[in-house]
Amino acid sequence: MTRTLIRNGLVITATDELTADVLVEDEKVVALADPALAESWSADTAIDATGMYVVPGGVDAHTHMEMPFGGTTAADTFETGTRAAAWGGTTTIIDFAIQSVGGSLREGLDAWHGKADGNCAIDYAFHMILADVNEGSLKEMEALVGEGVTSFKLFMAYPGVFYSDDGKILRSLQKGAETGGLIMMHAENGIAIDVLVEQALAKGHTDPRYHGEVRHALLEAEATHRAIKLAQVAGAPIYIVHLSATQALAQVAAARDEGYNAFAETCPQYLFLSTDDLGRPGFEGAKYVCSTPLRPAEHQAALWRGLRTDDLSVVSTDHCPFCFKGQKDMGIGDFSKIPNGLPGVETRMDLLHQGVVDGHISRRRWIEIASATPAKMFGLYPRKGTIAPGSDADIVIYDPAATQVHSAQTHHMAVDYSCYEGRETTGKVRTVLSRGRVIVDGGEYRGKAGDGTFLSRDTCQYLR
Ligand code: URP
Ligand code: ZN
Ligand code: ZN
């Protein structure tokens, strides 16, 4: 047995802040105590965390490692992407396995297990993208829930790719209600958006900024409203992914006020970036093309407010990186051909901590939206998302006073640009433990591919 002692840090969870020593035995946290009381504890390794925060490792509930999309493949593999996550203080990801049209859920899930198995630096789980809702795939949902793949993403966007019509969505929601599977919705009216794309291109509006214009905030709000109503008809909970528009947030808030189980996540890009970035000169704006799109900066205040009121419960990254050279440039002359997605798995914890520094959220809320709630939402709590006896020793020792300047020169994601190039933030990961092993320490990476294991998840823990 290996004993590790983390001494004298400020332990922050979603519910508490206390100066404590944390004792880890092998992969698990076994005890926390006041440093004076813990003086007699012995350990093989003692880590001094004086002046540091000691927080649960981040749980990023929305990533797309090596995802084939938009005629290319997301640049981070499970190996590079999970390593970058570890550098940024995230110790669990939930990635999206994909059913192909004409294929089964089983084939899709097996393929994603094949990509991830033996390659991850940190623990990982899967949601399943339902790209082809039919009798067979609906039947398969129950078996997947039994194997710990307890959430399913559907798309109201991307006709001809992942799109499901309202009938398919309703059937999936009904099956979700029956099996305990949580339906996650990409809520944008893709049929209307495609009309606007065609009209924009016909007018010669080909620059990246038009991506934001055609993906109108009201088309996010309309789809969010429709998704929630379909969920109510089915008697199912619903989780709206990557919410970016104030008007969509209002739909979630209204449903929650009426007592419905409507949940939503937003992403750091919607809190820190805007249409000003999409409109950068030349083709630069392509770096910021994702869906839902970035919105005018006024939306940011509403999103921070939603995080404070819990109408937004989770911040995930939607990490889906494409290099500027060789991938994003597929859309020169036609914004609709720019692969949709941004890098972010490494920067989420730091950007949200900046939200603490800027006074938008408290330290405990930081941990709640980045670790505890995603763990509960997707059936991983208290194994993940907290520091408590019995939980996995996924622990980040975080220096709240250190500053850093974000850059593609120094980040670890396999992508040739940073959305936050040159931006300074306060707070920095010092040490990361994943199930008791130190995998990042003081600027040195000590983990390896294969350290991470697949996590079979329980169903959503907010519905009991
Ligand atoms: O632009 C995005 N969000 N790309 C990834 C796919 C998705 O819709 O989440
Ligand atoms: Zn999506
Ligand atoms: Zn996504």
From TrEMBL:
This is Dihydropyrimidinase. Keywords: Hydrolase, Metal-binding. Belongs to the metallo-dependent hydrolases superfamily. Hydantoinase/dihydropyrimidinase family. It comes from Pseudonocardia adelaidensis. It comes from the Bacteria. Its cofactor is Zn(2+). InterPro entries: Amidohydro-rel, Hydantoinase/dihydroPyrase, Metal-dep_hydrolase_composite, Metal_Hydrolase, Metallo-dep_Hydrolases_sf. Residues 53-438 form the Amidohydrolase-related domain.
